[in-house]
Amino acid sequence: MKSEVDTVDGMDTVEAALQKMVHVETKTLIVNKRDENDAFGIVMFSDIARKVLARDRPPARVNIYEVMTKPVISVEPDMDIRYCARLFDRLHLSRAPVISQGKVLGVVSFSDMILKGIKQ
Q1: Which GO terms describe its molecular function (predicted)?
Q2: pLDDT tens digits for the chain (120 residues)?
Q3: Pairwise CA distance, residues 120 & 112, whole Å
Q4: Which residues touch 94 (CB under 8 Å, ≥6 apart)?
Q5: What is the pTM of this model?
Q6: 3-state SS, one letter per residue, for 73-96
Q7: Which residues pair with 111 in a beta bridge?
């Protein structure tokens, strides 16, 4: 699990998000909640490629809320790695935030699970 979580606001432009992704060397940003009753979102390079680049939309004129996935599918920090891998496979996920008590603790990916599974 990557415990340093990079976030973005849903009103930010894709251009601003891409600058942030390049600066922090990440492929995933968690979209902040607007208030305590809202849900987290997620935006990945693949979302931007499919919904902005492939459709020839200008990144400076597209907001994150237009391309993000919300609500995000998340996992609990104590979920068994085997069940997490099965969830990813069933829902065709590549990564998901780890959320506990309404707080994002990190982001887990298939790569993280494979590396942890090898070490066990």
Answers
A1: kinase activity
A2: 888 899 999 999 999 999 988 877 788 999 999 998 999 999 999 999 999 999 999 999 999 999 999 999 999 999 999 999 999 999 999 999 999 999 999 999 988 888 876 655
A3: 13
A4: 44, 46, 88, 109, 110
A5: 0.87
A6: CCECCCCCHHHHHHHHHHHCCCEE
A7: none
